[in-house]
Design brief:
101 residues, Serine Threonine Protein Phosphatase 5, Tetratricopeptide repeat, 5 helices, 77% helix, 0% strand
Length: 101
């Protein structure tokens, strides 16, 4: 199993953990994926949502900043969904920073 397949598997397990109310376990899987510069939006989206709900704005800002970095520097430049997702992350980061003050 390659790195991408392991990351996808972590996302799927994270989704199940969230459904089962095991949020801490989901967070660990998603955080591992973003450490490895996962090239999809799922772990960044879920962590940003979880951290916002918990009022952990510093963590939300950190995750969104990482998402922006990955979509600017790692994701294939010609990928069709790259720019829309990048813009979405930038807008969310701007809102999170306003909440933070």
């Amino acid at each position: 199993m390659g790195a991408f397949d392991r990351q996808v598997e972590r996302n799927l397990k994270g989704i199940q953990f969230e459904k089962d109310g095991q949020i801490e376990r989901a967070i660990k899987l998603y955080e591992r994926n973003i450490e490895e510069n996962f090239e999809g939006n799922h772990p960044y989206d879920r962590l940003a949502i979880i951290y916002r709900k918990r009022n952990q704005i510093d963590d939300e800002v950190r995750v969104l900043g990482k998402a922006i970095w990955v979509f600017e520097n790692v994701v294939y430049k010609e990928r069709a969904d790259r720019l829309p997702k990048l813009q979405k992350f930038k807008k969310r980061l701007e809102r999170a920073r306003k909440v933070k003050g």
